[in-house]
Amino acid sequence: MGVSDMNLQGVLDDIVAELSPRLGEGRVATYIPALARVEATHFGIALRTREGAEFRAGEAGRAFSIQSVSKVFSLALAMRIHGQDLWAGIGREPSGNPFNSLVQLETEQGVPRNPFINAGAIFVADRLVSSCAHPREALREFVSTLCGEEIHFDEEVAASEAATGFRNIALANFMKSFGRLENPVEPVLDLYFHQCSLAMSCAQLAHGMGFLCADGVNPHDGRQVVSHRQARRINALMLTCGTYDAAGEFAFRIGLPCKSGVGGGIVATVPDRLSLCVWSPGLDETGNSALGMAALESFVSRTGLSVF
Length: 308
Ligand code: GLU
Description:
By secondary structure, this protein is α+β, with helices and mostly antiparallel strands. The chain is 44% helix and 11% strand. It has a five-stranded antiparallel β-sheet with strand order 2-1-8-7-6. Strand 6 (258-260) and strand 7 form a beta hairpin. Helix 6 runs parallel beside helix 9 and helix 11 crosses helix 12 (247-253). The structure holds glutamic acid. Glutamic acid binds at residues 67-68, 99-100, 118, 161, 168, 196, 261-262.
């Protein structure tokens, strides 16, 4: 069955109804005040088909802190600018270590395993600082263009990230000590902390990730964002590295490229068909949204839409 023949609004409504008894499951991230004060009971889900049909349920229009979901946007922008050269300094393998681990970076001489662990995202931020006169604005404008509307940083979150980001500061300095960063650590971390602070809703994220299910074409203006091959590669990285140490479990239970963040958002793509985003701030022990994962599993079993 094609997606246009499916009752996708009904599917999203049924997922909200199915999960409503579980609202509040998991624990919100508490490392900064702006995340700690978010109620665990929020839940939103939105999707956008490749053809442009949009469906929403729950709090799909409410903005939240996208955190590590931003790593998809920064990677896409860096791949667009640097092409194949980007891969000279970064790997494409799952890390099997915590997302902010220093240990692996030491044994692998400061080369991050993949762009979705923090070290990898800091490396990507460094290359954006090298190539953009105003890197923060370049990233914000890139995301806004993908969404077809202005997207903003949450400056309170960005300031808290900087004030508490000791481990990220350590990762950046560590890579710098191995000669892996081209720029001083300060502007690199400034970009990284700001990208984490982007505030977006499920509807905006489903829209902004649309290029990943459309051969790299921005659904909003029809322009090529990244090449078809690059879009395929971003999806591959999301599937293998996008959900912290639970990528195997996500592939097993859901089978879609996904990227999660500690704000409780998870974006997913059904290649060639649709992009979706679910948000529920309560995290499970792997750092992924507990109900977000449950919602995606329910979505796949209700629609059969999985790459496997
Ligand atoms: N700002 C968080 C950090 O860098 C992002 C964590 C995440 O969403 O994975 O530690």
